Amino acid sequence: MYQGKTLRKMPPKTRRFAKAINGMEKELRRLKAMVEPMRQMEHDQIALERTMARPNKDEVFPEDVSELMQQQVLATGTQRAPA
């Protein structure tokens, strides 16, 4: 990175070119700093998509088990012991 004293010693066209290089280096550092947060966000997005694809817990294990047991008793005439 070219600093003030060095830039002042350069001819005008070279100075403009050096300033452009400084600007590109600054942006490159900024972009490199964004890589890790971007990777983490992508990882979280994939995890969220996988979580949303799973069946709902309430659909698999209904909260009102007593209603299911009552239906079983009416259907079979016998009562099963709860697990």
Fold and architecture overview:
The protein has a domain at 4-57. It contains 4 helices and no strands. It has helices spanning 4-9, 12-53, 57-60, 65-76. The mean pLDDT is 82.
Low-confidence stretches: none
Computed CA radius of gyration, to the nearest angstrom: 33 Å
Mean pLDDT: 82
Number of helices: 4
Major pleated sheet: none
Can you write the helix and strand succession as a string?
HHHH
Distance between the termini: 71 Å
**Overall 3D shape:** rod-shaped
Total beta strands: 0
Secondary structure category: mainly alpha
Percent helix, as a range, is over 70%
**Percent of residues in β-strands:** under 5%
Topology diagram in text:
Blueprint: H1 4-9, H2 12-53, H3 57-60, H4 65-76
Question: What's the short story on this structure?
Answer:
The protein has 83 residues and is mainly α. It contains four helices and no strands.
Key features?
about 80 residues; mainly alpha; about 0% strand; rod-shaped
